[in-house]
Amino acid sequence: MRFLYVGVTLGTIASLIMFYVDLRHGQHDWALSSLLFPACAPPLLYWMRRGSVAAGKAQSGMALLIAIALVGGALASLNTEILLVWIPVLPLAFVFLLGHARAMGWVVWTLMGVIVAYTLFPLFHRGEAPVSLLLFVISLLAAGVSILLSWQHHRELGVYQRYLRTQASYDALTGAMMREPGLEVLGRQMAQVDRRPESGLCVALLDLDDFKRINDEDGHLAGDRVLVEVAAALRGQIRQGDYLVRLGGEEFLLLFPGMGTDGAHGMSEQLRARIPEVTTGLSARPVTASIGLTRYRPGESVGQLLGRADELMYAAKTTGKNRICHDGDVPPDAD
Ligand SMILES: Nc1nc2c(ncn2[C@@H]2O[C@H](COP(=O)(O)OP(=O)(O)OP(=O)(O)O)[C@@H](O)[C@H]2O)c(=O)[nH]1
After folding, report:
1. Ligand 1 mutation pick, 206, 211, 217, max ligand atoms within 8 A of CB
2. Secondary structure (3-state) at 267
């Protein structure tokens, strides 16, 4: 939005200077096209501030003004080099106003309008020649360069945004999804099962056993390496489309969308057996995990589902650890 205020102010000042210069040279028809932007853009901005015009519509309105001013200016005065200066500026103005995707359409149409204006120029000016073809093509090439620059900027921005999203969603130590985004995914998966109950969803709450002792006896760094190896093993074992979430500390949540209880139990059993293998040598004693496995019951809340998984995991802890506890009362398996 700040661009809009700066852009309208600069555009208005530049257009008023052009208007003054055109008037001094007695070119009244050119002066009219210079007056279009200062006459329309500030009121549009004012209506937008008051809320009478939606911001998106006001921005499209500004883009339209720029397009009309440029094509109109080209028809009226394309035999002066000064107008060519604006042609490379146009793609950047559109990108700032409308975002990259929409701007490209506007750029194409406006440049086509300018090319048509160049071609028709002699018709409107009794055979008078427009500015040399070489200069005109150079200004179009300069517009091409500014499109490439804006595209490059857009790409870099996309890479940076993806990087930030990853940083915000994935735990730096284990690479597992973090709690918040993980619970959002869980909510989405549950909603999907609510719509299509036959698809099913199982969740496993996995907690490493006696992790505090690993930290105390082998050191915090060893504890970290255990977490890294366990997470890597879990990720390597689950299917594409399953999710691994680090709920906190040494507690992980696994989501198995579309998997029945038998399948999820088999998978959890493999994971449980894999943990001591991948952590051999990292800790003086074998690393094991207790797992609470449950199936989502359509209509229940995230809290109810995770609460049940937690109770089952706790049952696994209290009945000897290194084991899986699962629902005894799940509906008959669809598998
Ligand atoms: N090294 C390391 N330790 C962590 C991290 N996050 C949490 N912890 C430790 O994990 C330990 C968890 O201990 P408890 O909650 O008592 O659980 P536990 O020792 O596994 O006992 P049970 O769950 O009953 O088997 C605490 O000592 C935390 O300091 C981490 O990122 N790295």
Report:
1. 211
2. helix
pLDDT tens sequence across 39-66: 888 998 888 888 888 888 888 998 999 8
For residues 186 and 267, membership in a common domain is answered with yes
Last residue of a domain, one of 149, 169, 189: 169
Does the pTM exceed 0.80?
no
Is the CB of 215 within 6 Å of ligand 1? yes
Considering only the C-alpha atoms of the chain, give the largest distance between any 2 of them, rounded to a whole number of Å: 98
Q: Domain range holding 210?
A: 179-326
Q: What's the whole-number mean pLDDT along residues 292-308?
A: 96
| Tokens at 288, concatenated | 């094991």
- Pocket test of ligand 1: the residue of 250, 288, 319 to mutate, having most ligand atoms within 8 Å of its CB, is 250
Q: What is the band of 203 on the pLDDT scale with cuts at 50, 70, 90?
A: very high
Tell me what ipTM this predicted complex has: 0.96
Residue 249: per-residue pLDDT: 95
CA torsion angle 116 98 103 143 (round to 10):
70
Centroid of ligand 1 to alpha carbon of 317 (angstroms)? 14
| Total of domains in the chain | 2
pLDDT value at 301 more than 90 = yes
Locate 26 and state its tokens. 């007695």
Residue 335 pLDDT greater than 50, yes or no: no
- Catalytic residue of the set 128, 198, 250, 269: 250
Same domain membership, residue 313 and residue 219? yes
Task: Look at residue 334 and tell me if it is in a domain.
Answer: no
Q: What is the CATH number of the domain that holds 293?
A: 3.30.70.270
Answer yes or no: do 38 and 127 share one domain.
yes
250 noted as active-site residue: yes
Q: Which of 169, 196, 216 lies at the terminal end of a domain, its last residue? A: 169
38 CB contacts (<8 Å, ≥6 apart)?
11, 12, 15, 16, 19
